[in-house]
Write a structure and sequence with these properties.
Homodimer. Catalyzes the oxidation of 5,10-methylenetetrahydrofolate to 5,10-methenyltetrahydrofolate and then the hydrolysis of 5,10-methenyltetrahydrofolate to 10-formyltetrahydrofolate. This protein is an alpha/beta fold. The chain has two domains: 87 residues, Rossmann fold, CATH 3.40.50; 133 residues, Rossmann fold (3-Layer(aba) Sandwich), CATH 3.40.50.720. 41% of the residues lie in helices and 15% in strands. The strands form three sheets. The chain has a five-stranded parallel sheet with strand order 5-4-6-7-10. Strands 2-1-3 form a three-stranded parallel sheet, with helices on both faces. A two-stranded antiparallel sheet has the order 8-9. The structure holds ligand LMY7XDAE. The ligand Nc1nc2c(c(=O)[nH]1)N[C@@H](CN(C=O)c1ccc(C(=O)N[C@@H](CCC(=O)O)C(=O)O)cc1)CN2 binds next to helix 3, strand 3, helix 7 and helix 11.
Amino acid sequence: MNDENKRIDGKAVAETVVQKVKGETEKLVAQSGIVPGLAVIIVGEDPASQVYVASKGKKAKECGFHSIQHTLPADTSEADVLAHVQALNDDPAIHGILVQLPLPKHIDENKVIQTIAPQKDVDGFHYMNVGKLGTGDLSSAFVPCTPAGSMILLRSVLGDDLSGLNAVVVGRSNIVGKPMANLLLGANATVTIAHSRTKDLPDLVRSADIVVAAVGRAEMVKGDWIKPGATVIDVGINRIDAPERGEGKTRLTGDVDYEGALENAAHITPVPGGVGPMTIALLMANTLTSAYRHAELNPPAF
Ligand SMILES: Nc1nc2c(c(=O)[nH]1)N[C@@H](CN(C=O)c1ccc(C(=O)N[C@@H](CCC(=O)O)C(=O)O)cc1)CN2
């Protein structure tokens, strides 16, 4: 297989998801008069968060949603953020609430997340949604956007049933590693979660038919860790210096050494243009799902 055919084009798959959300939104509005509503709260001026939040608002409008953004200064009190969340919980025009992470240090992220009404928690971070995913009760859950998007990319090359395949998830975060492991398990893969204290990580990764890298360390997973024929999903988005592009220039890279891994992998996601765009597309899908549930209609499957 040539290298170009190995690349999983997350941007293209995300666009397919967004087009489906758009079509299904039109159907929902025609059937029920309900317009999906998404509210995003951002606290502070983190430049990357500002870019992601702007993309979410733009995509929501493109999908035909009612889209609102609360931009709060970095010194906003925790009580004030909680009050904003409460107001959105009570707003019938809003079906999805997202608080952009990370939050400034003085705000307890978990307290904020647990204040979001579980039925509007389109990030899937509330204990109620975490528990439903953990027990395989997906009919009324929200699955976190990055792992849900990663599964769609995996399915696009491996199909729905991962029986007999060994998956290694490198990273144990609540946002990506743990939910990803649950989703892989739900698709019948044999799953290992690895982390900073795992012994002989390279050899463990060499046993994997599916590698999901979600550690947040630039190019930590090396090319010779990848088993020939494996599928690699790179969730990392790291900005590193790129002196080859000129003085002071930077570039984005994943948690995997892409060029090295390309030699062995059968399929691999690039950074940028892999998992990242799927995160935003799945946020749109989750918001649409929430609005369908609100209308007491069966949501479309993604
Ligand atoms: N409340 C949440 N906060 C955060 C989440 C989340 O899912 N919910 N995830 C990340 C950030 N994130 C979305 O919020 C996100 C990250 C990256 C991308 C993306 O499309 N990346 C592009 C590159 C973009 C660039 O040029 O910087 C890519 O990979 O191609 C989308 C969303 C943390 N916070």
